[in-house]
Recover the amino acids of this structure.
């Protein structure tokens, strides 16, 4: 799994984010592709009597989690039990749709190959005709190289092989005509939830081909209904105006099902009239909690009510306590706090070695005097406070002030006590040693103490922020690198014209694998070069009973 708190990874990802923001706003790849391709095709499956579709979002993180999903997606059939004990037979999709953020942390040719293509090619090396198709919606992580690697892999007029699937889309957005008046539409909202004019024109042309009573399944990279529910009161721009325009003005309220990733869990909101808003981002990336905003998103816009979550909010809350083992899950992060604590101690150099714990007041006074004499110490102290102030995850200025201030002050206090203990140890362990040896031992102890204490303090802050205030949901769970609680959605357009939705979970993915069949079967299909070899892994099952959206009109 990606080490999101590794110093090198933090730096590289930060640079890519800044560059993508600068160039993404001034050189929109979607417009250039639309000019080159001239038109976007519609893939037509409407002649079929029924159709199966697999929707997998937020893939390409760790091998076990990504391949665990890919292995089961590639199976020709899955028998899935629901919570009531009923068994449901499902088939592999004739269409596979990736719902955004196909690779982590940043895109490149090698990253896509290692973290996405290789797992799916291993799961289904070759398929029997008629070959299944693959489509993809780009997410913000796919845009970090201005969509270059994504376009090379998924887009173009020439079909390419993606394991046993074939690419069909020409642009970063697409439309698929399904049987019985159903359409599946994939959008590209770039980095700022923005839909460009060529994309709108394309969807207007698609909408013009729809008959009265046709219904739409909309795949978008971000669950805008969650963003609105959580942040609209702080930031009016949180409302996704372009998607609202697409929903009401272009498709004329034909959208029956909204599918999105971005949040790495499963959550379904349902409206009284049967419409569905589903977040299904469990395709392989680190888990995102479901308990932090449980009350905020219990009901979202237009009367949609939350009816199911995976993992269950109570399981999610218990997982958050693993942040107390933050140094264990993120062994490289302590390097940052170790260096920070050393620089703070070096800049202050308060004469506190002669004081023991019974003389805390005198030690604090010596620290105060040393700081007032050192502009460098003041600079480092303010830098720490401002750094943790801007790290605070919130749209509330008041919470940012108090949360960031308390976090920063906690690190400054921890640095003081670690430095005081280090100086006291050096003075009493080597009472007759030269001063430079005292400094070296103090510095070494500061590094060691900062490595452990600073990282542990970060874990405590994330735990309190998440379980106490519902903030830092991404940071508090990306730190855990959780491979389990994966999920995806299987759709079935039935011969009767209804849409049946199967939300599938993998409670625990396999950690060990063994070689599978090395040759193709009689149909020419070559499946699963690796198969699970872990008795603790759980089989796929349904998160909830299948959801049926009846045909209208």
């Amino acid at each position: 799994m990606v080490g999101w708190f590794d110093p090198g990874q933090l730096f590289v990802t930060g640079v890519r984010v800044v560059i993508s923001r600068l160039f993404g706003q001034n050189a929109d790849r979607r417009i250039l592709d639309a000019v080159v391709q001239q038109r976007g095709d519609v893939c037509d499956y409407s002649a079929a009597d029924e159709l199966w579709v697999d929707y997998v979002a937020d893939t390409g993180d760790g091998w076990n989690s990504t391949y665990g999903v890919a292995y089961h997606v590639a199976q020709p059939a899955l028998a899935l039990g629901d919570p009531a004990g009923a068994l449901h037979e499902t088939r592999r999709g004739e269409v596979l749709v990736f719902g955004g953020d196909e690779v982590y942390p940043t895109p490149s040719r090698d990253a896509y190959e290692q973290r996405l293509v290789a797992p799916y090619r291993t799961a289904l090396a070759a398929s029997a005709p008629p070959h299944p198709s693959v489509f993809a919606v780009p997410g913000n992580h796919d845009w970090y190289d201005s969509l270059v690697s994504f376009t090379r892999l998924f887009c173009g007029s020439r079909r390419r092989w993606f394991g046993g699937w074939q690419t069909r889309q020409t642009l970063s957005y697409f439309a698929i005509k399904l049987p019985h008046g159903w359409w599946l539409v994939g959008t590209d909202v770039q980095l700022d939830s923005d839909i460009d004019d060529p994309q709108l024109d394309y969807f207007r042309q698609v909408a013009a081909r729809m008959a009265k009573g046709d219904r739409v399944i909309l795949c978008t990279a971000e669950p805008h209904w969650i963003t609105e529910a959580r942040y609209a009161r702080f930031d009016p721009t949180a409302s996704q105006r372009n998607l609202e325009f697409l929903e009401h003005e272009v498709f004329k309220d034909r959208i029956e099902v909204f599918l999105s990733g971005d949040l790495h869990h499963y959550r379904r909101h349902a409206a009284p009239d049967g419409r569905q808003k589903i977040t299904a981002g469990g395709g392989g990336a680190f888990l995102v909690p479901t308990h932090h905003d449980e009350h905020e998103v219990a009901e979202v816009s237009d009367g949609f009510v939350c009816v199911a979550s995976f993992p269950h909010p109570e399981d999610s809350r218990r997982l958050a306590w693993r942040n107390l083992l933050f140094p264990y899950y993120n062994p490289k992060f302590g390097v940052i706090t170790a260096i920070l604590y050393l620089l703070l101690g070096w800049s202050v150099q308060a004469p506190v070695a002669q004081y023991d714990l019974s003389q805390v007041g005198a030690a604090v006074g010596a620290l105060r005097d040393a700081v007032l004499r050192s502009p460098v110490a003041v600079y480092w102290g303010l830098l720490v406070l401002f750094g943790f102030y801007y790290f605070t995850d919130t749209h509330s200025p008041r919470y940012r002030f108090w949360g960031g201030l308390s976090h920063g002050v906690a690190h400054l206090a921890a640095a003081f006590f670690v430095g005081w203990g280090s100086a006291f140890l050096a003075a009493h362990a080597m009472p007759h040693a030269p001063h430079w040896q005292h400094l070296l031992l103090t510095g070494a102890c500061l590094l060691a103490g900062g490595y452990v204490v600073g990282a542990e303090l970060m874990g405590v802050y994330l735990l309190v922020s998440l379980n106490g205030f519902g903030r830092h949901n991404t940071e508090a769970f990306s730190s855990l690198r959780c491979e389990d609680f994966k999920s995806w959605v299987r759709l079935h357009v039935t011969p009767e014209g209804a849409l049946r939705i199967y939300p599938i979970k993998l409670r625990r993915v396999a950690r060990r694998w063994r070689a599978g069949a090395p040759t193709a079967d009689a149909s020419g299909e070559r499946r699963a070069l690796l198969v699970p070899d872990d008795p603790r892994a759980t089989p796929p099952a349904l998160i909830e009973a299948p959801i049926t959206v009846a045909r209208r009109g």
The first strand starts at residue 42 and ends at 44. The CA atoms of residues 182 and 266 lie 23 Å apart. Residues 7-320+484-549 form a domain with the Purple Acid Phosphatase; chain A, domain 2 fold (CATH 3.60.21.10).
